[in-house]
Amino acid sequence: MSTFVILFATAVLSFAIRSRSVLKLLVLAALLAAGYAAIDAVPLGLSHFGSDQAITLFEIVLLVVMAAVVLSEEENINITQTLFLGAASVALLESQSFLTFVLSFEALSIISFVLVSNIKNREAAIGAVKMFVSGALATALIVLGSAFYLFEGHDLNAPLQEVGVYGTVGLWIMLVGIFYKLTIVPMHTWAADSYAQIRPSHAAILSGMVKSVAVVGVFMTFMPFLLQQNSLNLPVLVMLALVTMTLGNFMALFQKQVGKILSYSSIAHAGYMLLAFVAVKSAYAPVAIFYIAIAYIFMQTALFMLLDKAGKGSSSVTLDDLKGLGTKDKTMALLFTVQLFSLAGIPLLAGFLSKAVLVYAVVDVGLPLVALATLLNSALSVAYYAWIVKHIYFDEPAKHSALGSLRVSGFAAQAILLSGTLYFGLFATTVFDLFV
Amino acid sequence: MGALYLIFLPIFLALPLYLLGRNFGVVKYIALTLFVYMLTQSVALYGQLPEAGYLDLGSYLSVPAFDFVLSLQVDRLSVIMLLLTSVMLILVGLSSWRMKMEDAYFALLVFFSGAIFGVFMSTNFLWFFIFWELTLIPMYFLVGIWGAEGRIYAAVKFFLYTHVASMLILLAFFLIYKQSGTFDMTMVKESMLMTPALIWWLMFVGFAVKMPLFPFHTWLPDAHVQAPAPVSALLAGVLLKMGAYAMIRMVILMMPEQAAAYGWVILSVGLVSLFFAGFMALHESHLKKMVAYSSISHMGLVAIAISTLSFDGLSAALFEMIGHAFIISPLFLIAGFIHHRTGSWQMGDMGGLMQRAPYLSALFVLSGLAALGLPGTMGFIGEITILISTIQAHGVWMIIILLGSMLAAGYLIYSFRRVIYGEMSPLIRESDFSMPKMEFLSLLLFGLLIIVFGLYPQPLFEMINQAFQSYFSAGGLS
Question: Please, which contacts does B399-406 make with residues 24 or more away whose CB atoms are closer than 8 Å?
Answer without folding.
Answer: B400/B271, B401/B271, B401/B274, B401/B301, B401/B304, B403/B275, B404/B274, B404/B275, B404/B278, B404/B297, B404/B300, B404/B301, B405/B372, B405/B373
